[in-house]
Amino acid sequence: MDIILIIIGAVLCLIAIIGSLLPVLPGPLLAYVAFILLQFTSGHPFSRTFFIVRWLIIIFLTVLDYIIPSRGTKKFWGTKRGVRGSNIWLVIAVIVLPIFWIVIWPFGLLGLLGWPFLWAYLGEKYAGKQHKHALKSARGSFIGFITGSLLKLVISIVMFIYFVSAAYHVIRI
After folding, report:
1. Domain residue spans in the chain?
2. Cα angle 79-80-85, degrees, rounded to a multiple of 5
3. What is the DSSP string of 127-149?
4. Segment 122-126 long-range contacts (CB within 8 Å, at least 24 positions apart)
5. What is the pLDDT, as a whole number, of residue 163?
6. pTM for this predicted structure
């Protein structure tokens, strides 16, 4: 039974790494579920403190993931409409990208990277800002999106390393 839980947990950790780059999948949360599965093995490798700290990290990271693109837009002198535009892409990406991901994968990837930029730009143009100002604001939203994704990626990789280390010790027992 331990091996099955470890395999399922490893798959969840790999999906978590992919999910850190896609807004559709909750990357770090899936890695956390993998830790819970590993805790049900005969080794019980983690303490209660470990789970509490990881949970707080995931909550903090989730909050940052929504704040960073907005802050990036504001940092580059974006208006409220630009911030709203950069947040609209999240909803669109979550609904539209999974539907078309398999059919038009390269365009889906391009759309994933372009949505925050495009919607922040459109929000600024709707607010009546000039082209240069709208581009600067959109660039801030894009930088914020990339920063949030990289943070989730790093955390997911670190959690995967923890998982592999703990799974190795469980198997050795």
Report:
1. 2-172
2. 100
3. TT--HHHHHHHHHHHHHHHHHHH
4. 122/85, 123/78, 123/79, 123/81, 123/82, 123/83, 123/84, 123/85, 123/86, 123/88, 124/78, 124/79, 124/81, 124/82, 124/85, 126/81, 126/85
5. 94
6. 0.76
